[in-house]
Design goal:
The complex is a heterodimer. Chain A is mostly helical. Helix content of chain A is 70%, strand content 2%. A two-stranded antiparallel ribbon of chain A has the order 1-2. In chain A, a hairpin with a 6-residue loop joins β1 and β2. The relative contact order of chain A is 0.13. Chain B is mainly α. Chain B contains 14 helices and no strands. In chain B, α3 packs across α14, α4 crosses α8 and α4 runs antiparallel to α11. Helix content of chain B is 74%, strand content 0%. Classes of the chains: A mainly alpha, B mainly alpha.
Chain lengths: 314, 298
Amino acid sequence: MVDSKQQWKAWLYLSPAIILLLVFTVWPIINTVRMAFLDGYNGLAIVGGARFTVGIANFQKVIGLTSFKTSLYNTTLLCVLTVPISTLLALLIAVALNSIKPLQKLLQTIFFLPYVTNSIAIGMVFAAMFNIVGNMGTAGNDIIITAGIINNLIELFGGEPINWINAGSTYAANITVMVVYIVWNALPFKILVLLGGLQSINRQYYDAAKVDGTPRARVFTRITVPLLSPMLAYVIITGFIGGFKEYSSIVGIFGEDMGPAGAPHRLNTIVGYIYDALPKMNYGQASAAALILFAIILVVTMINMQVSKKRVHY
Amino acid sequence: MAKNKNEIVMHERNIQNVSAKQRVVKVMVKVMIYLFLVVMALIVLFPFYWMISSSLKSLDEYRLTVPTFWPRQVIFSNYADAFTTASLGRLFLNTAYVGIVSTLLSLVITVLSAFAFARLEFKGRETMFAALLGTMMIPGELFTITNYATINTFGWMNTFKVLIFPFLVSVFYIYLLRQNFLQIPNELYLAAKVDGTGDLKYLWKVMVPLSLPTLISITILKMMGAWNSYVWPNLVANDPAHRLITNGLRNAFTDATGDVNYPVQMAAVAIVSAPLFLVFLFLRKYIMTGVSRSGIKG
């Protein structure tokens, strides 16, 4: 029974949401596709009355650009490194947390703490920890060099200090810092989801394993992991989606330059590339890059789903 | 009885031995588990510890080649300096304003939409709901480009409007609240209608109180979102009058010529982080339920 008064009311209640979504969500979807397929589309040229032909020149241009290739490479590398590391660590921590009673709540709270932080702010703390140069000689040309707490710790254990993020640092060192920070940032959400999954596994499976005298490692690989696989698939998929949109954690450590002093944009990501194009009103290329990003996320998600279908036990 | 039968004694002893061994293994495993967790917890906590300890040091002490693990002389003036260097007061007011206004508007919109989807019958309801959920798959960066152009056309650059409106409607929150509304029995609604209670009154007196936990979750996540947002504000409202806190924090310490006063910077970071920790401490339950269902940060 659909009476017309309810119809009218429903659309009234939905109207604020619909209007805002039309302007800021639906139109952008259409317009982004449109701009991506208009050759050389540019916000400044459109003011000048320029007309554009339909084509794929934006995509060709973007794919050919070194800056985009660097961004794509960095993003992919960070994803491939951080998702497995953070998932594995989170799994170990969640299983460990699930197997203890005293201190469980306290440790759980500590592990969730990085989640409620500002990724720019804490990125600055990481930068301070890895930083080497305290003062590059301003007043009186004095150069004060501090090793930075991470290097102090490395030396404490007998290692050699490393130039992590300062001018002249290597790409590998930069990436290492980013991996450490991104994993640190990604752990809480994964632990939360995996621990929730573990706590909902029926105890009977473990009791049965105990009766059979199954060794711990076997219980882990044959009971825990399979029964946790939906949750694992979920954190891996969201991990990849988040990973391909990596941006602000790099700004947190390296600033808007997206790289150490002397090598700006060395660590740029796809999202960073899109944002860089905006103030130049290079909308066509930015849109093309955004669609490429969307396609990558879609493909990676679909591959994950396909793998899940074979491996996940619901 | 066992005195005479040595074999049985031997057997019992064996069992005792085995169980003792098992117990040792069990304790060892427990110790290893705790050791692993404590080490990981220390690693997780280390940046926070370093932030606080650095923020209380003098610049000279911070630059010592052999670092001190706790300031020899605790200096609180860094916090005052941070407030002035980054003009945190102004940033704080800006962020509070944007956070409160966008949260209130977002709550109203979310409640009305969720009510329409959960209780009212209209043509195309399911299709429209599915379409809304579909938009959640698309990465936000795809919207940003056109929104940036739209904002330019509207002349909204460097205003509070641009920080409030574009991301006001969250499909995820509508979805969350609709699920909650659906659990409230429809009989209540029909009874209210018989009594002649209006929709809005019913919504306010029955639906909203019954789904308060979800609304609180939404409020906290939305406020945290304003507090932590960086990318969009940095693009469209980066003037001193409208700058938000995260932006201001990043900008205040980047124009420096490599000569960064880290203790002051760490103090500023601590000030920005403090409200988040307070919220976390007191409202953890709401954050965790919201987060585990969304998979999004802020």
